[in-house]
């Protein structure tokens, strides 16, 4: 299914076409599964894992709320929503405590009511954070487009091995520590390969292979509006 067909189905689904929504979900279940794996870092099956159910609901919500006028692809928007919903789920699971089944007295009921109010406020805050993160990812996708890449492409070219990722993160940190290199990147929308290779003590081949990934990391590291994404890029360690 191409992007044009997907957008047509999204538009129809937002207008209440149930079959269009079902077709989108059917066609993009592999996308949902891959986006979930990127967060959970383990194989997931539709039969056994609640995480995929949560991701499926997030994908459905993305269909409802996606606005193409904001300039980013639906799949980046959906990926951000799936990621944040799963993170929200893990947070709740970590805090979850079972309530006793016996009855409560008035004082206990008051305490539970206060706890529920606090939980509602927290849920509202998490939802707000969720929406803000999705917006930030859309903004990053637009910014990366100026450098000839996108979040969709980065998902495919991100190094799978930790050592390779850490090496490129180190190169990005070296880049960001040199104002001249950062200035050249912003003006020319490309890396100063020779200077960066010498400063980071890596080969030009490594720079070329990881060029777009390094640029994305540098954008996140040097632009304050993307600071919330440092955790997802492994930059807050």
Major sheet size, sense and barrel closure: none
Give the ordered list of helices and strands. HHHHHHHHHHHH
Based on secondary structure, the structural category is mainly alpha
Strand content: under 5%
Which of globular, elongated, flat, extended, rod-shaped describes the shape?
Answer: globular
Helix proportion: over 70%
Rg over CA atoms: 21 Å
**Mean pLDDT reading:** 81
Identify low-pLDDT runs.
Answer: 97-118
Q: In total, how many beta strands?
A: 0
Domain module count: 2
Give your account of this protein's structure.
The chain has 237 residues and is mostly helical. The chain has two domains: 3-97 and 104-147, no CATH class; 158-229. It is built from twelve helices and no strands. Helix 8 crosses helix 12 (211-222). The longest helix is centred in the middle third of the chain and has 40 residues, at 106-145. The model is unreliable at 97-118 (pLDDT under 50).
